[in-house]
UniProtKB/TrEMBL annotation:
Region span, Domain III: 150-198
Record keyword Cytoplasm present: yes
Main location group: cytoplasm
SUPFAM superfamilies, A to Z: DNA helicase RuvA subunit, C-terminal domain, Nucleic acid-binding proteins, RuvA domain 2-like
Residues in Helix-hairpin-helix DNA-binding motif class domain copies: 72-91, 107-126
Name used for this protein in its record: Holliday junction branch migration complex subunit RuvA
Source lineage: Bacteria, Bacillati, Actinomycetota, Actinomycetes, Micrococcales
GO cellular component labels: cytoplasm; Holliday junction helicase complex; Holliday junction resolvase complex
Domain II, as annotated region: 64-141
Location(s), subcellular: Cytoplasm
Length: 198
C-alpha cells in the first residue's frame, strides 16, 4: 500500500496530477479543487490510497489524511466505487460529508452526480453508525490558489463531474454575479456545486 508520496508536480490535469518521485512520474487521481491548487514545478505531499483491480493499479491522492480515510470508508458501501467516492469529496468537504451521513441528510448526498435517493439511503444506512464524531467548526483544509482562468477551470470541473456545459456555465455565471469577489477555484467550485444542487 502506498499511503503517501511527496515530490515535484510534473503536470496538472482536470482531475489528476503527475508527481515526480525518484525519477518516476506517478499519475494521481484527485478532486478538481485539489488539482487546481497544485502547480507544475511545486512540491506536493499527498496522502494516497492504491486501488487494485485485475486490469489496473490506480492511485488516488488527497491533501489531508481525513479526506483519504473518508474516501476509503465510503467505498465499504455496496455500489460505491473509487470514482463515486471521489465525486463525493469533490462536492463536499470531509466534515460536511460526515455530517450529512451521520445526520441522514439525503438532500446533501443526492447533490453528488451518480447518487440517487436509494443510493443515499444505502450510504446512510451502512455508514451512519460507523462515520465517527463530526468535529464542530472543522472544514476542508485543502489548499486553494487564485488562477487567471478560474471560471474556465470551474466550468471544466463541473462538466467532468457530469453536468452539461450549459448547466456548468450558468452555475458559474450565477455564482460570479452573487459573489463577485470570489476568485479561488475551490471556493468557486463549491459555490457552483451548491447552486447546481438547488
Amino acid at each position: 500500500m502506498i499511503s503517501s508520496l511527496s515530490g515535484t508536480v510534473g503536470a496538472v490535469g482536470l482531475d489528476h496530477v503527475v508527481v515526480e518521485v525518484g525519477g518516476v512520474g506517478l499519475l494521481v487521481h484527485t478532486t478538481p479543487a485539489e488539482a487546481a491548487a497544485l502547480r507544475p514545478g511545486a512540491t506536493a505531499r499527498l496522502s494516497t490510497t492504491l486501488v487494485v483491480r485485475e486490469e489496473s493499479l490506480t492511485l488516488y491522492g488527497f491533501a489531508e489524511t481525513a479526506q483519504r480515510d473518508l474516501f476509503e470508508q465510503v467505498q465499504t458501501v455496496s455500489g460505491v466505487g473509487p470514482r463515486l467516492a471521489l465525486a463525493m469529496l469533490a462536492v463536499h468537504a470531509p466534515t460536511p460529508l460526515r455530517a450529512a451521513i451521520a445526520g441522514g441528510d439525503l438532500a446533501a448526498l443526492v447533490k453528488v452526480p451518480g447518487i440517487g435517493k436509494k443510493g443515499a439511503e444505502r450510504i446512510v444506512l451502512e455508514l451512519k453508525d460507523k462515520i465517527g464524531p463530526v468535529e464542530a467548526g472543522a472544514g476542508s483544509s485543502a489548499p486553494t490558489t487564485p488562477v487567471a482562468a478560474e471560471h474556465e477551470q470551474v466550468t471544466e470541473a463541473l462538466v467532468g463531474l457530469g453536468w452539461s456545459a450549459k448547466q456548468a456555465t450558468e452555475a458559474v455565471d450565477a455564482v460570479s454575479a452573487a459573489e463577485p469577489g470570489t476568485r479561488e477555484v475551490s471556493a468557486l467550485l463549491r459555490l457552483a456545486l451548491r447552486e447546481l444542487g438547488r
